[in-house]
Amino acid sequence: MDAEAAAAAAATAVEERERLRRSFASGRTRPAAWREAQLRGLLRMAAEREDDICAALHADLAKPLTECYVHEISLVISSCKFALKNLKKWMKPRKVPGGLLTFPSAASVAAEPLGVVLVISAWNYPFLLAIDPVVGAFAAGNAVALKPSEVAPATSLLLADLLPRYVDPSCVRVVQGGIPETTALLELQWDKIFYTGNSRVGRIVMSYAANHLTPVVLELGGKCPVVVDSDVNLHVAAKRIAAGKWGCNSGQACVSPDYVVTTKSFAPKLLESLKRVLFEFYGEEPLRSPDLSRVVNSNHFNRLMALMDDYSVSGNVAFGGQIDERRLRIAPTLLLDVPLDSAMMKEEIFGPLLPIITVDKIGESFAVINSMPKPLAAYLFSNDGQLKQQFERTVSAGGIMFNDTGIHLTNPNLPFGGVGESGMGAYHGAFSFDAFSHRKAVLDRSFLGEARARYPPYTPAKLAIL
Ligand code: NAD
Questions:
Q1: Alpha carbon of 37 to ligand 1 centroid (Å)
Q2: Fewer CB in a 10 Å sphere around the end CB: N or C, the chain?
Q3: Rounded CA separation 217/215 (Å)
Q4: 295 pairs with which residues across the strands?
């Protein structure tokens, strides 16, 4: 990008931010009626433009229609409905007990919009990850600059076209583009930055935010482990692991299982069951299956190939491994006993490869997980109550789930966010509202309740009263 283009990106960023600032300053975003109208607009957009959204997602990722609807559109619809149902409750100031030292007084905690917020979203669920934070930002009464991912250009273009038609165009601006455009936005002061993406860029976002003391939510990724005990319903477990992996954008999902840990003795049974399920799901020619997304682009395809071609890993393919480079397809692939120091076990895989690590005793799996950075999600398949308790106590992750994968994020009563390397802050349901609100302390005193000891001159007699 030359200097002229960089200057243009910077000018656009300033212009859009100023426009949003003026709209927010006008006070229009504060009333519940405005917020409800925006949520209804987003709801209508998701429902009315389903075909266009699916077409864009298909162009960007060859995402199967069912996944487009169930994993993106319907989740946006549920988010909007949940926010509409609860908005008045969320907006209401919360009364809290007045303190003894402030007696008599009325105390409350008021939710205040932050102002003008920047949402930067990722390519893998490019509709959901762009709109879901906007639901929270609007519910909380903010104006929003949205920067969709350039890696999903069809969805980015569609969002730029649709959003201003369905919601107040003076309070949402979609800025398209890549790193230079995102950088131009990051150089400005915002009232919050909500970033979804990888942790390398998360660090960049946070360092820009530090210049303005801008608070951030960082929705990052990581290696999500799945521990499988031997007492499980194996077929159900295998189906749920496969659905969370290949059934979620071919493993290009932040909560997809990244690796499995099981015992040496149980691994062959689990492997057989996973193979059977993969055959049931995708048939004999998975590269031709319409139910598997493709790898998003050749950069990511080459990255995944490099993980597979690593000399320490290439001999460990236990199933799959077929590729179609031209169509950016990789068949569901299982690898057994991949070394923990291989790149495949050091980096987030984010694709259709699933290594299986074996340990002598299932309890040892916790040490494997804890030897790596904290993941966004961690899963345990087991019927053993004690093992579950131990997992919950020992494993730190954004969220944990027993006996399933991925779908914990559909519960709007649970916060969705990472910890440590997988991010900071959370959203979904009321947590989205909170993420985009300031909790303002409000104390209302009367003119009664004068304590003379408070005022100078501080005499021994006054001190004695205290
Ligand atoms: P991406 O390449 O789409 O990047 C995300 C955003 O960051 C884009 O809008 C892009 O313009 C911007 N960006 C990229 N490089 C930049 C730079 N150098 N400076 C400034 N801005 C930059 O997405 P990605 O990072 O490849 O997404 C995949 C990652 O996101 C995975 O790690 C995944 O686990 C994580 N993820 C997390 C969640 C979650 O909710 N926690 C959801 C989806 C994906």
A1: 30
A2: C
A3: 7
A4: none
**Which residue is closest in CA terms to ligand 1's atom 1?**
122
The DSSP string of 351-371 is SSEEEEEEESSGGGHHHHHHT
Residue 363 near ligand 1, beta carbon < 6 Å: no
CA atoms within 13 A on the CB side of 108: 10
- Please, are residues 7 and 164 in contact by the beta-carbon 8 Å criterion? no
Q: How far apart are CA 78 and CA 60, in angstroms?
A: 24
Length of the chain: 466
pTM of the shown model: 0.96
**Helices assigned H by DSSP within 213-247:** 234-245
Residue 389 — φ and ψ, nearest 5°?
-60, -40
Centre a 10 Å sphere on the Cβ of residue 414 and count the other Cβ atoms it contains: 14
Question: Can you tell me the ipTM of this complex?
Answer: 0.97
Could you read off the pLDDT of 339-365 as tens digits, one per residue? 999 999 999 999 999 999 999 999 999
β-partners of residue 13 are none
Q: How far is CA 108 from CA 31, 105, 442, 445, in A?
A: 19, 10, 5, 12
18 counts as catalytic: no
Q: Per mean pLDDT, which range of 4-8, 41-45, 155-159, 371-375 is the poorest?
A: 4-8
- Verify whether ligand 1 is closer than 6 Å to residue 350 (CB atom): yes
Pairing relationship of beta strands 323-324 and 329-330 according to DSSP bridges? antiparallel
The atom number, within ligand 1, closest to the CA of 125 reads: 43
The question of whether 254 is a catalytic residue gets the answer: yes
- Residue 230 Cβ contacting ligand 1 at under 6 Å: no
What sign does the CA torsion over 87, 88, 91, 93 have? negative
Ligand 1 centroid–CA 98 distance in Å is: 44
CA dihedral 198, 199, 200, 206 (to 10 degrees): 120
Determine whether the shortest distance from the Cβ of 129 to ligand 1 is under 6 A. Answer: yes
Q: Which of 141, 80, 35 is nearest to 428 (CA)?
A: 80
Rounded Cα gap, residues 285 and 322, in angstroms: 9
* Catalytic annotation, pick one of 16, 219, 224, 248: 219
Residues 233, 239, 244: CA angle, nearest 5 degrees: 125
How much distance in Å is there from the Cα of 196 to the middle of ligand 1? 5
Ligand 1 geometric centre to CA of 445 (Å): 48
- How many CA atoms, within 13 angstroms, populate the side-chain half-sphere of residue 348? 25
**177, 174, 205: which is closest to 192 by C-alpha?**
205
